[in-house]
Design a protein that fits this description.
Blueprint: H1 10-15, E1 23-26, E2 30-34, E3 42-48, H2 55-61, H3 64-80, E4 88-91, H4 95-98, E5 107-111
This protein binds guanosine-5'-monophosphate.
């Protein structure tokens, strides 16, 4: 099962405004900002505003309105950034084997180059 949410994680601090981020989008359900260590010409993180550790507890327990709002926000961020054509990659790491480092749900948006094979 998903670990309890830890309000001291770095993205919780960003949501509370305790540490800065390079924001690209915000609405009632989501915040998007540039990754501090970009792995593509565009590397944006989109996070829900609710307290969710990962896709696991989010998909299992979030109200439908929060799930819809978050999914919509990811699409808005990609369109606003101009990456629908020629395309982009979304990635969510879940838990230890997923390589998740920050225990607040986030979707990576990679764009601006051809990403190649899925795990390349
Ligand atoms: P994960 O491995 O958990 O899926 O990805 C965490 C991501 O958060 C990494 O790509 C890392 O560079 C990014 N990151 C970690 N700390 C910060 C921070 O303080 N600010 C920003 N903007 N990104 C961060």
């Amino acid at each position: 099962a998903t670990l309890p949410y830890d309000d001291s994680n770095i993205f919780a601090k960003i949501l509370r405004g305790e540490i800065p981020c390079n924001r690209v989008y915000e609405d009632d359900f989501a915040l998007a900002f540039h990754d501090i260590a970009p792995q593509a010409p565009t590397h944006i993180l989109v996070i829900p505003k609710g307290r969710y550790v990962s896709w696991d507890d989010f998909s299992a327990t979030a109200p439908d309105v929060e799930i819809a709002g978050f999914v919509r926000a990811v699409g808005i961020v990609a369109r606003d950034a101009g990456h629908v054509e020629p395309g982009y990659r979304l990635l969510a790491n879940i838990g230890a084997h997923g390589g998740q480092e920050v225990p607040h749900l986030h979707v990576h948006l990679f764009a601006g180059k051809s990403m190649g094979p899925m795990l390349g």
